[in-house]
């Protein structure tokens, strides 16, 4: 198997991570032509879904030994979710009501357009450890789009003023994007921030799964 270029995952055991199957799947997802939609209509690659879903968790991480099976399971849900495979991601994470399991569950419902249910799961999440980094990255994404869309300044100001990441606000913005014409710059901001969120939560889940 080729080594993955996705080096933000597995800093504790980088050389081994390169040769795990989950690293290969992430490498494939990184090569997507477009940023994943906020509300996908179908999975991106059904054959990738089959590969992910048919492998036992231990084989997804081998040769790394899993230290926390629940974090390993929700990382599988995250990879499926990145592939826009919402139903299977839901099947994996719905019975793991840890803070991070609830976070993946909330993202899944947000992406299917069930915004009230998404907020229910984000209430279970509380203050997740990835929120501070997500807030900083979202502000950085906002800086990329302010020049092409003055309306984007309102989003960045809202994030800056809140001082903490507000997942409920982001749910509302995604809901607005479904029903209102937001313009390409705002859509880019929301989709790019969503992708940043998925990457950060995958990294967190991976580190916990291997005992980091």
Tell me what you see in this structure.
The chain has 212 residues and is mainly α. The protein has a domain of 60 residues. Helix content is 66%, strand content 0%. The longest helix has 26 residues. The N terminus is likely disordered.
Task: Give a nutshell description of this structure.
This protein has 212 residues and is mainly alpha-helical. It has helices at 14-17, 21-30, 46-54, 57-61, 69-82, 86-93, 99-112, 115-125, 131-145, 152-162, 167-179, 184-209.
Topology:
Elements: H1 14-17, H2 21-30, H3 46-54, H4 57-61, H5 69-82, H6 86-93, H7 99-112, H8 115-125, H9 131-145, H10 152-162, H11 167-179, H12 184-209
Helix pairs in contact: 5-6, 5-7, 5-12, 6-7, 7-8, 8-11, 9-10, 9-12
Main pleated-sheet profile: none
Helical segment count: 12
What coarse outline follows from CA principal-axis ratios? globular
Order of helices and strands: HHHHHHHHHHHH
Number of strands: 0
Helix content: 55-70%
Which percent range describes the beta-strand content?
A: under 5%
SSE class:
mainly alpha
Low-pLDDT sequence parts: 1-8, 10-14
